[in-house]
Amino acid sequence: MAKYSLKINGKTQQVDVDPLTPILWVLRDHLNLQGTKYGCGIAQCGACTIHLNGMAVRSCQLPVSSIGRQEITTIEGLSENGTHPVQEAWLEHDVAQCGYCQSGQIMTAVALLKNNPNPSDEDIEATISGNICRCGTYLRIKEAIKTAAKK
Amino acid sequence: MMENKKTYTRRSFIQSSVLAGGGLMLSFSWFSEAKAVEKGLSFNLMGDWNQLNGYIQITTDNIVKIMCPNPEFGQNVMTSLPMIAAEELDVDWKDVKVEMASHDNVKFGNQFTGGSNSVRAYWKPLRNAGASARQMLIEAAAQTWNVPASEITTKVGILSHSSGKTAKYGEMAAKAASIAVPKEVKLKSPKDFSIIRNSRKNIEGVKIVTGKPLFGMDYSMEGMQIAMVQHPPAFGMKLKSFDASAALKMPGIKDVFSIKIFEEGSNRGAFETRTFNELIAIVGKSTWEVMNARKVLKVDWEIAPERKEFMMVRGNKVEEITPYGLESTDLHFEKMREWAKKPAKVLRRDGDPENAFNNAAVVIERTYNAPFLAHNCMEPINFFAHVEADKALFVGPLQAPNFADATLAARFGLPADKIEILMTRMGGGFGRRAYHHYMVEAGLISQRAKTPIKLIYSREDDMTYGIYRPMYTATYRAALDVNKNLIGFHVTGGGIPENPIHANRFPAGAVDNYLADGWEIPSNITIGAFRAPRSNFNAAAEQSFLDEVAEAMGKDPIQLRLDLLKKAKERPVGSNNDYDPGRYIGVLELLMEKSGWGKSENAGKKRGVAAYFCHASYAGHVVDMVLRDGLPYVERVISAVDCGVVVNPDAATNMVQGAVVDGIGQSFYGALTHKNGAAEQNNFHNYRMIRANEVPQKIEVHFVQNDIDPTGLGEPPFPPVFGAVANALFQTTGQRYYNQPFVSDQGQPKS
Q1: Which of B109, B204, B346, B692 has the fewest beta carbons closer than 10 A?
Q2: Across residues B64-71, what is the average pLDDT?
Q3: What residues of A are in contact with residue B657 (Cβ under 8 Å)?
Q4: Which chain A residues have a beta carbon less than 8 Å from that of B205?
Q5: Under a CB-based contact definition with an 8 Å cutoff, are residues B518 and B494 in contact?
Q6: H or E segment at B568?
Q7: At a CB cut-off of 8 Å and minimum separation 6, what does A43 contact?
Q8: What is the pLDDT of residue B129?
């Protein structure tokens, strides 16, 4: 066990956990931030996507000991009531079916637009192909990203 | 503007009561007379399962609360079901609050999410409930204002009288609670719908995009521990012994023990599929700690003997044998070829099929195969349980709470009213969450560990546990006379462990000499309902076979179907055909129109078409395919669906688009194979799922416009995708595809 001071959504939080604990489980089990989802545990589905210094990463494969002073943003850190432009676009296109993968999809989309404000269709596809949606809402995800890019 | 309709039979029941604080609460139960599930659904439904119930509450401060009785797994019921009640109640949709009901088989009845049943089953009860509440509010206003009820009108939550008097519903709610529930109510004519048929956003949309804890995985309670289970590494194996001493020394671990899910010799109830009966449970403080402790368990497994079980089927005790042994996909194919040579059980016979085949000028015979499929819901299996001596609480994702209720009551020896089940939003279901073994597992762990626990499956646990879409095969034969007329049709279906054939579906009823038969090979690999059970295979096989028959007859594939359906409509063969040829024709005609089928501007396109009936609805697709980097790619899909009245059109479109994507993905890549009893795929690195770069650029969805009561949508658009994809593959590559998955070579038979 070791103590870590983590900057999450602008707030510093302390945890005392095994250094190898993936940040996914630190968020979910220790900090009560349940928006980041467990889907596969091997960085194949993207449900656990968070931002590390603004970059989209798979939290299921990221040990807490590797975070250091880097800033973590989770879905809860985008906005309280869904007012982030990407969240608004998601609502406008009524993207979700079951909704389980969507926080990971949104976090991937937010990071994409931050680095590439006017992505081409190919850019969008290449980026979000790492995130599985079992309900098959991919067409709406792409449309929502395009809408958000215009905002 | 209104239709007079007698709405209640003597078996229906609506009750009003006063809300705390003085509002109106209307609770209702309803014994639906509608055919609620398709005939021959592959699982057994018990008792008065279609007793439907619900709630409408109106508070004095004008908040309208409508309870959603059925679990939500992405099919949009939390939005679409309340829309139905709100329509007849005549309220402003923005004043409506929706709450997920807890499980209560007295108040809410069966609460079954499956069989494309939710909107179909609740359509009439919810309309009647909304109209009854509205009528009682009108009566309350009439008494208060001392005017005839017939002079009062409503408009979006406001009661008005020609004298100028107006009141919000909330103001009359308390008085309305004292009014007798009307025996008859007027329902709106479909042309007056203002909520139904007008898209409304997902009621939980904001919660979803902000990551609120909606799912079972997200549930927690003070003092709750995390639990995982270790199941045998292969089907056909069982636990021999284990040594947990190292695991128990790991940080955070509270306990390790084995559990027996069902008691030996107990009768198997509905949805009580028994894959592995004895599991090792690990209980600890956090998920990561439990995962790590599980890795150091020392376990000896052994070959399980043949197992005998008894099931109650329509009051009769039926014996079921689960064979022993370690099964493999190669052996499965070998066995299927062997069984296909044996005489099969006749399921339907019309005319003289043998004679037709003997006299045929041409006989076309083709065999189709498909592998097991894992459901792979994005949210892995999980459930919270807190079992105490005299009561129990269960919280999590499930599709069939009323069946779970019966199992839990028996297993824990508690009366049903001491078992509380709360239903969370499900991260997908697709049939998988109708099988509630994981609730029993969670309950047993909580009971033994004497603590509230949340049981979590890893992705690997989820994918290798069984309850798969079965492995299927079918051989189709068509007999043509010298003039290329179809004079005979024969299908033999086989499966492990279930036969896929729906004997009374198209083209039964359209061919004079028809034979359907089948066989089943028992297996210890367990199966379960998977989005449109059996149909998801039949539509692939039958619809690509018809494509080949059309080619042999020199006919356009849609024209062949239309000719056959016309015959089934005008001169049907047999009397128990499941489908309505008129609605089937309607879907094909809409598909032709919207896709520009046969038009010169589409001459260069590589298109496949298929249409299918299942549950109670009709759907068809035209798939446009190209080769992209040498691989087949579905570029565009045009879909046509007849599911009756579409309650929430944009959400319905979303679901059809999802079914198309799902169908392309499963038919291209889906396969779960076995070697020495073990699943060969266990996570998304070796079980390929369709991804964003593989989906069509466009999926255009068109609904047949009619006023037929809704007939269900979650499953029907899924099966025909497989057939349309197979037929487009032929147009694109010049080759026929008989074995799924079409693009991946996993799960293919070796010749």
Answers
A1: B346
A2: 88
A3: 136-137, 139-140
A4: 82, 90-91, 94, 96
A5: yes
A6: helix B557-570
A7: A58, A60, A61
A8: 86
Domains and CATH numbers, chain B: 2-209 (3.30.365.10), 216-307+381-456 (3.90.1170.50), 343-361+364-372+468-733 (3.30.365.10)
Does B683 contact A91 at a Cβ distance shorter than 8 Å?
no
In terms of pLDDT, which residue wins out, B29 or B123?
Answer: B123
Q: What is the mean pLDDT of residues B123-140?
A: 91
Closest by Cβ to B692, choosing from A28, A47, A128: A128
Residues from chain B that touch A17, judged by Cβ atoms under 8 A, are 286, 288
Task: Report the residue of B72, B219, B378 to disrupt the A interface, i.e. the one with the largest count of A CBs within 10 Å.
Answer: B378
Any idea how long chain A is? 151
Dihedral angle of Cα B331, B308, B273, B384, to the nearest 10 degrees? -120
Identify the burial level of B388 via C-beta atoms within 10 angstroms of its C-beta, where 0-12 means exposed, 13-18 middle and 19 or more buried: middle
Report the residue of chain B nearest A19, measured CA to CA.
B288
Contacts of B637 in chain A (CB under 8 A): none
pLDDT digits (tens, 9 = 90+) for B218-272: 999 999 999 999 999 999 999 999 999 999 999 999 999 999 999 888 888 889 9
CB contact under 8 A, B662 and A35: no
For every one of its 151 residues, what pLDDT tens digit does chain A have, with 9 covering 90 and above?
999 999 999 999 999 999 999 999 999 999 999 999 999 999 999 999 999 999 999 999 999 999 999 999 999 999 999 999 999 999 999 999 999 999 999 999 999 999 999 999 999 999 999 999 999 999 999 999 999 999 8
- Smallest CA–CA distance, residue A69 to chain B, in Å, is 23
The answer to whether the beta carbons of residues B45 and B115 sit under 8 Å apart is no
Residue indicated by tokens 């009820």: B149
What is this model's ipTM? 0.99
> From CA B129, how far away is CA B120, in angstroms rounded?
15
Torsion over CA of B683, B686, B692 and B693, rounded to 10 degrees?
160
**pLDDT on residue B33:** 34
How many angstroms separate the CA of residue B364 from the nearest CA in chain A?
36
CB contact under 8 A, A39 and B210: no
